Amino acid sequence: MAARKEAMMNAVRQEMALQNAQELMNKANESCYAKCVTRPGDSLSSTEQTCLSRCLDRYLDAFTIVSRTYTTRIGKEREARDPAALS
Description:
This protein is mainly alpha-helical. The protein has helices spanning 2-36, 46-81.
């Protein structure tokens, strides 16, 4: 029963992580588009392409930092709750 509960919780965590990543990308796309594409048209200028690339890179860098920090924190909290579980 406990293993089933843990498996279900892991599935929910994975789904939430996926939704968070999708939301981040949607917000990054909207924000970067609004910032970088000043005159929408049939194609992007090289300036707009560069701006979009840099903007999305910054969002992904921030997401990576937050994800690593969050993962580390969760690991420390689990270890503090049940140090024997890591052995």
